[in-house]
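Assess this today:

___
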Amino acid sequence: MQMTASRIVKDLTLMACGAFSCAMIAAAPAVAQSADQERTDQVIAEVGGEKLYRSDFEDAFQGLPPETQQMGQETLYPRILESLIQQLVVIQTGLEQGLQDDPEIQKRMELVEAQLVRDLYLRRAVEAKIEEKDLQAAYDAWLEQNPPKEEVKARHILVETEEEARNIIKMVTDGQEFAELAKKYSKGPSASQGGDLGFFDRGSMVKPFADVAFALQPNQFSADPVKTKFGWHVILVEERRKGDSPSFEQLRPSLGRYVGEQMARQIAAELTAKSDVQRFDLSGKPMAAPATQ
């Protein structure tokens, strides 16, 4: 059955410039429908006797980067529609000229077919092999390698000079309320919240600040000013805790990809080990298979 231009356009990456900054609009890689299958969704254009449907637009929209999708379907619709139309016109023109039979196309089709055969074989082999226990084992290993990070909840007062910071330390030592002093003296964006920084881990702050904050115990404040590139800080730690690790369900998609990739490599290696393979170095001399990892 000959492929029509409208079916081809669903599997192409579409270019749209202007508002997209020449970003690529990728149509969803849905399996092309047979020519005799009726599509019942709304027709959005007819080009040379072939129809484009609302689902074609939605596939293209879903292929956009999330930040572009934020512009909304109604805003992007005219540009995406025009891009779909232009792609279809170009494809129709190429088909009319018989480019589908061009040797270059045939060579590329053979390569695409080989890649699809490889990917489909490995996907089905992995799907037949992968089990829930494999994902759980990968999750346990991830937790072991990524233990929960320690977090502190702190407030700070940011000022421009060391002298100001030392004066504030004296006021805190004398019993004045830290949060009220932050509202009055701090130059930082958290001043209106009494210097409240919430919970953070060590890597979220610049090193001099983090080193002091994580050395303090709850309800302790820094005895000396802390200098960073932002200025001079007085730090009060209110709480310490261990951060929460992502749940198994939260990591399931990435665990599936990771385990699947590992299994696919293993399956390919096992098939290769069973096959009749001769290896030669760049000078044409026989060479041994690489050591099994």
Notes: The first strand starts at residue 13 and ends at 16. Confidence is low (pLDDT under 50) at residues 12-36. The two ends are 46 Å apart (CA to CA). DSSP finds ten helices and eleven strands in the chain.
